[in-house]
Backbone:
């Protein structure tokens, strides 16, 4: 089986979730014996269709445009048994790059109108179209986000549509690429590739694994994602830079601080630690919270603890500068920007205890 795998994400350098999903699907297809060529459409020049119908009239089967579509991609499409249309979900549809590619396949058909028994009308094929697999990834976590795309794909490809693979919450999945959830989803995507080549479709069980919720707690994920966007805006950096620099989402409330501290907590570094750390915040955000650390576990709670091991009294902004690495905790301590009472040795271990 000759497969043409089209990736229309404009993002590269490991950022594209379409690319990650596609590479795993292709892995499975190749293992099952298919001959697969991946084409990154972002590297190609594909003009939008001019709507002149010259490919139907003056030069039947040949487009007026002289670009990568007419030079190489149209022929690759013609020769393929199966084409994977892998696209990021943009405004609940394929992105413009993929749409441009699809529109430019018009010379595959002849112009005549053929009424079908179903009541629909179609155009006869000049050349047989390859079968199709649609793969898409989305930022939102709800499956319904793919509804419009799926309806369109079914209408457009009809019986030629072999499989649809839709991965919601794809950005979240990529955050934990090393995590077990993401690994299960990607392993199922490899399996889907094998099944498409071997069985001509994807089994229900594999599909279910691909659709596994990409995060454990959507509420937490949403809070952290929103903090991340806020931080990007405040720092004037792109999402890519945020990830590359390993920036920390800046908490904007006692609740989100508790969340971030819980995420940063390094269980291994706290294996032999029992302590209660109390924070008393003043300034732009006022309030108190404490963390019970007990041999590798941490329980955050709002309010004051009965007998804390360590109490840190600080303006909220000062401590958030430390949390996000904008300021050095020791320097600020020397400059008396915050006050500490209790186990100083514990404070010295903060970098390791919350360094994850
Ligand atoms: C212009 C634009 C439109 C988008 N529209 C949607 C959308 O309608 N629904 C959604 O869930 N995500 C949407 N997203 C988020 C992308 O689907 C998501 O970031 C995805 O991971 C991008 O794929 P990529 O990582 O392969 O580039 C949009 C992103 C952009 C840039």
Residues:
């Amino acid at each position: 089986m000759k497969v043409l795998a089209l990736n229309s994400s404009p993002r590269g350098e490991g950022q594209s979730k379409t690319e990650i999903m596609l590479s795993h699907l292709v892995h499975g297809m190749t293992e099952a014996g298919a001959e697969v060529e991946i084409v990154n459409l972002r590297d190609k020049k594909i003009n939008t269709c001019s709507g002149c119908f010259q490919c139907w009239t003056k030069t039947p089967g040949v487009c007026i445009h002289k670009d990568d579509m007419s030079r190489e991609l149209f022929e690759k499409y013609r020769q393929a048994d199966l084409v994977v249309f892998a696209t990021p979900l943009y405004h609940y549809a394929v992105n413009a790059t993929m749409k441009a590619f699809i529109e430019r396949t018009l010379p595959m058909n002849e112009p005549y109108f053929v009424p079908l028994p179903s009541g629909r009308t179609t155009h006869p094929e000049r050349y047989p179209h390859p079968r199709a697999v649609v793969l898409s990834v989305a930022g939102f976590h709800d499956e319904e986000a793919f509804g419009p795309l799926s309806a369109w794909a079914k209408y457009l490809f009809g019986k030629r549509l072999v499989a649809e693979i839709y991965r919601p919450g794809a950005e979240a999945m990529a955050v934990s690429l090393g995590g077990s959830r993401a690994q299960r989803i990607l392993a199922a995507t490899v399996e889907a590739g094998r099944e498409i080549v071997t069985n001509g479709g994807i089994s229900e069980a594999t599909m279910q694994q691909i659709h596994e919720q990409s995060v454990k707690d959507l509420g937490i994920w949403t809070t952290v994602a929103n903090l991340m966007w806020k931080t990007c805006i405040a720092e004037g950096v792109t999402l890519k830079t945020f990830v590359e620099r390993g920036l920390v989402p800046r908490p904007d409330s006692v609740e989100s601080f508790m969340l971030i501290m819980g995420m940063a907590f390094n269980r291994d570094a706290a294996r032999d630690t029992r302590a209660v750390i109390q924070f008393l915040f003043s300034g732009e955000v006022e309030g108190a919270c404490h963390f019970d650390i007990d041999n590798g576990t941490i329980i955050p709670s709002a309010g004051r603890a009965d007998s804390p091991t360590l109490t840190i009294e600080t303006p909220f902004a000062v401590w958030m500068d430390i949390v996000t690495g904008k300021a050095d905790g020791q320097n600020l301590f020397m400059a008396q920007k915050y006050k500490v009472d209790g186990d100083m040795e514990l404070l010295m271990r903060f970098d390791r205890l919350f360094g994850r």
